[in-house]
Amino acid sequence: MENIGKRIRELRKKNDLTQEKLADYLGVSYQAVSKWETGVSSPDLSLIRPLTKLLHVSADELLGIDGDSDARFDELERMYKDTYTTGDLDERWRAANLAVSEYPGNLTCLSWLADANYYHAYDFLPDEPEKYRAELEKSVRLSERVLEDCTDEEIRKHMSANIVVCLSELGRREEARIYAEQYPRRNSFGREDLLTFCLTGEELIRHRQEEVKTALENLCGVLTNVWSPDAVLASEAVIRSLIPDGNYVIFHETLARLTVDLAKYLIREGRYAEAVAALEKAKYHSREYDRIDLPENRGVYRFTAPLLDHVECDTRKRCVSGTSSMTADFYEYHLPDAVFDPLREREDFRKLLEREE
Predict the structure, then answer these.
(1) Rounded to two decimals, what is the model's pTM?
(2) Dihedral pair phi/psi, residue 215, rounded to 5°
(3) Does 128 share its domain with 214?
(4) Is the pLDDT of residue 1 over 50?
(5) Domain carrying residue 249
């Protein structure tokens, strides 16, 4: 750090201020200013902010802090945000911790760590449930700390949503509800609606089809949260009606998850053959989704159904949390679920367990 007195002298002269004038503006004696500039003493901390205003500089510039710190922040931000493409949760955890240690008190960095803690919690399931809960509690605590002082609305929304999810998983649903009810409501009319008045031709068609895709994603998300077989079947039916040619692109992921959920509902009703059929569909959709989403397959893919044939999906830009493939999750996470135990002696289920090369 440079000598602050030298910086004050340089900046005072740059702003055409005499020692006496600077002293009068600050409410101190000109002898005090002289002592700062000769290194005999330093200004009181309470004067740093007024000095930055009078000398038209940031506190970092006044104190002579190396500007390279911004380059380091940009590097850490890239490290953190890249994990939303790679899905590397360990790297996300490492980048967030590094950022917080190097930029203590930075609320953006703290929000990264709150987010990373949520995903880190799952490293302790199923063998260490207490550590899982402790990580969720830490994520809530960090999110609340960010909300206390952060003024960035996007960060605040993200932290509020994180708190709701963590508290719900901790079984503290009444607390979660308080945060959920404070979350901004969706606007009924916004930017996307206004753009329809401005666009023409192919651009307008593409815009409207993008809106169809977004609406379909949102509807499936809402129906999934209903947690009923009717909702699952409705979601599946809507997707298949809007994309009748079977080129589902990113909706293969949605269909894979929906058909696993449907299989679970069918098991509870004792409809075992139908449950296996649903799992066969889930296996198919998992494999098809991996054809566009595995790292070596990522790129730009286009729908071909009439209502979406102007819409492209760039799977290189999709947000990913985790490095396993959807097919691997099907075999290693879904099929071992105890809910499918009634199927394990069935020949059709055993055949389903066989991995395809």
Answers:
(1) 0.66
(2) -65, -40
(3) no
(4) no
(5) 199-352
